[in-house]
Design a protein that fits this description.
elongated, 89 residues, 0% helix, mainly beta
Length: 89
Amino acid sequence: MQFKFLTLPHHVTMNLGKGKSFFEIGLGGTGIFGELDQNYYLYPIIGYRFQSLESNKLSFRVYAGYPLYGWENMNIWWIPVGVSLGVVF
């Protein structure tokens, strides 16, 4: 049996710290379109962000989040850790 899903993750976070290193906290959600019992999962986010103070430099972020409810009956894999690379502008 093959399952097809479309997920739309989104989140809002706040950075606490000074200089280049930040502790990050926030709230995220994932809307899932497909054949599931539940189509929306809400989760807290905690992480670390390194961001240069200069333009055109690398930004790095690692974070974790796990659903507050509904994960017991989840029919898809949930990867609770994420990594992000970007450029400061």
